[in-house]
Amino acid sequence: MRVAYVTTYDASDPHAWSGSASYIPRALRSSAIETEVIDKVDEGPVLACLLRAKALAYRRLLRRDYQRDRSPTVARRYARRVQRRLEGAHCDAVLSPGTLPVSCLDTDRPIAIWTDATFDGMVGFYPGFSNFCAETLRDGHRLEQQALSRCRLAIFSSEWAAATALRHYDVDAAKVKVVPFGANLDCRRTSQDIERIVLGKDYRVCRLLLVGVDWTRKGGETALAVAQCLNRRGLPTELHVVGCRPPYEPPSFVKLHGFVPKTTEQGRRRFERLMSEAHFLLLPSTAECYGVVLAEAIPSACRRWPRASAAFRPRSAIAATA
Q1: Distance CA 61, CA 76 (A)
Q2: Could you say which of 9, 32, 177, 320 is the most buried, measured as most Cβ atoms within 10 Å of its Cβ?
Q3: How is domain 2-178 classified at the architecture level of CATH?
Q4: What local confidence, expressed as pLDDT, does residue 62 receive?
């Protein structure tokens, strides 16, 4: 079987979409599925410039956000570019980690979507989806409906995401499936290796780990409050932060590691060391569609979102009510 993997961004970028963008085609190939990557599908520089000006006008005049990739014109441009590249690909099916590249795609090949949220599920949930203009809301829902109507399979990473598709769009329930994402890490540790790491941990200081690029959305203030509380109660605690920093100078027990790239061997080893030395991963996010990092580290302490992640398992995580 040969699959065309379609994205609007660079599918080889290990940072795109928390790493899932590059790990999905790798997983397909490891399962003996030939994979043709059709990535970096864009609207072109001229149209992008015009729509950026339109977005600026919306922001300046109406104080609303216009999302240009929800434009039907952009979606049709995506479709034409994908169609041209599909002509010589000789693929049996099309797989996309998002709805936008396939919402207007006209092909006789079956289409499958594997993603973590619907447009409706994101609106009013993520900070960047809370102030859309009426045009973006209208077009966003229309394009989402078109993609769900065109696809043969609509695969979501959580029950919550699947439920939003069934509740807010006209979609056949038989083609809606739930398949959780896995960890975006290369790990060859044996059970003996893991036992050795656990036994070798330093228990004189409780090490908490927060991973994310957005201090506010990832619940940095809550993580800081947890560490402060433990220190006040007599348990020496450090909060190690990867990927973000607070907008002020933090207390001395907060250790900032900056952005740790997984693209280099040094970065991967450093990330693995931070994970191995931590006693708990904290994920008190205010908004999270899935939380891939939950699949990459246990035990975890996370906020119990109304839209709970399928990566959350009571045996491996401690949940606090939001």
Answers
A1: 27
A2: 9
A3: 3-Layer(aba) Sandwich (3.40)
A4: 96
Continuous H helices in the chain:
20-30, 45-57, 72-86, 119-122, 134-150, 159-168, 191-199, 220-232, 265-277, 293-296
Q: Which CATH class is domain 191-321?
A: alpha beta
The β-bridge partners of 94 are 4, 111
CB contact at 8 A, 161 and 169: no
On whether the CB atoms of residues 319 and 312 are closer than 8 A, the answer is: yes
Domain with CATH 3.40.50.2000 in the chain: 2-178, 191-321
Instruction: Give the mean pLDDT of 88-98.
Output: 92
The identity of residue 147, as a single letter, is: A
- Only one residue has tokens 């990459």, namely 296
- 93: burial class by Cβ within 10 Å (0-12, 13-18, 19+)? middle
Model confidence, pTM:
0.80
**Mean per-residue pLDDT over the chain, rounded:** 88
Tokens 């709970």 -> residue = 308
**DSSP class of 59:** I
Q: How many CB atoms lie within 10 A of CB 74?
A: 24
Which among 128, 275, 321 has a CA at the least distance from the CA of 216? 128
Query: CB neighbours of 28 closer than 8 A, spacing ≥ 6?
Result: 3, 5, 35, 95
